[in-house]
Sequence to fold (212 residues):
Amino acid sequence: MGGQFWVGGWYWSVAFVNFFFDVCKLKLSKDIMERAEAYRKVSESVNYIWANRDFVMVCARPVKINRDERGRLHSETEKSIEYPDGWGLYHLHGVSFQKDWWTKIVGDKMSPSEIFAIDNLEHRRIAYEYMDKTKMKKLKDFKVLDEQTDEKGNPMKIISFTVQNMNKPLKFYNCFCPTTKREYFIGTDKDTCTEAKNASFGLSEVEWFNEW
Fold:
């Protein structure tokens, strides 16, 4: 197992081993050096290789890789990574999406109800980032039940609204990660920010200080 995407991370990886050969000038037996060189060349020439007893699977290197400023797979206009046969993946700031979702999100074609129905928290966060925030007012029975500021100066809210075919309003705890500043909407049954924050960590009563 190896290839361009598997050259580091373990003590037997190509990058680790060749550090000793290239930098430390380590010399081993001719047989081992030849095997190591062959493995290095394979890893430099193909994206992925999986050697089995009777056959070897080899994957070509991608023809295109798009990243954001933090090095995460990302593109708002095309596949984040694409291979010679046209197959590829779609990412927004490192989060993977199916093409139909990616198309709707970057084109702001999802309604708030659709976005808040997304189970995956990271998918929901990204979809909300790309949504025109004025759409929030179109949610049925939209209310802000509570507003506070956390210990790092980040705003917190409890919002409530009703979606189709549901009689009981949905409630979300709107908060920001103190470290990354990412904005999240976390489902809750609480009416205050403090209660919702504590509950999100499985706690009932706690005093917060010096968050990170």
